[in-house]
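The data are passed on as follows:
___
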Amino acid sequence: MYAFEYERATDQKHAVEKFESYDAPRYLAGGQTLLASMKMRLAQPDALIDLGRVAGLKDMRVESDGMTLGAMVTHATIAQSQEVQQSAPWLSDLAKGIGDRMVRHRGTLGGSLANSDPSADWPAAALALEATIVTDRREIAATDFFQGMFMTALEPSELIVAVRFPQARRAAYAKFRNPASRYAVVGVFVAELQHGVRVAVTGAGPCVFRVAEMEQALAQSFQPSSIEGLRPLYGDLNNDMHASSEYRAHLISVCARRAISSAIHRA
């Protein structure tokens, strides 16, 4: 580790003001990725702006057309919430499978989305459910938010306040996880919305992405058999020590079918 300033924000305005007073600051949410990156010197901010006491960032609201979750709501809170389990059980199920107990109790929804890790789970849910990322200055559709590996549409000092998830008719997430990190080698979130079906994939590419062929097939018949044999071209997928690109293409098909089955059985 190395020397840096630590600031504890009291509200959203204070957080942004403190952020803008440094040359290379970072917002600190759960810190499950950022602090590890700092220890390895992959990230070297000159200041951390702690969001832990900013009012309103841990709010959760269930509405008739969906759910709004504050950016600082932890994975464990989402996993254990009775409201989430009743209104959007697919979000609760996803949160239960993130990392280990410590990660779930410290990691946050907003921190995960802002980091845009190519193997993180929440980007798949946000993209498939066509969520809206609410910041301190605007609203960003999930389809516009994720722009690449660790890249988002956020401006340097822009702060995620909440995430609005529309209600789905049925949805589910399935992933093949790395046994050590529990990150997704491949994760697929399938959602049947009011206006169509969305299939979002994480872990397989440099950034979360949708599979249009599967969406079109499932719009005709929401059954695992509808996507039999459909898989992305593996030449564009990640190829590393954990899985080849060809194997990831296979896993996308497997995880998608499992997610569809889960969504059908839950409905």
Summary: Residues 170-266 form a domain with the Enolase-like; domain 1 fold (CATH 3.30.390.50). DSSP finds eleven helices and 14 strands in the chain.
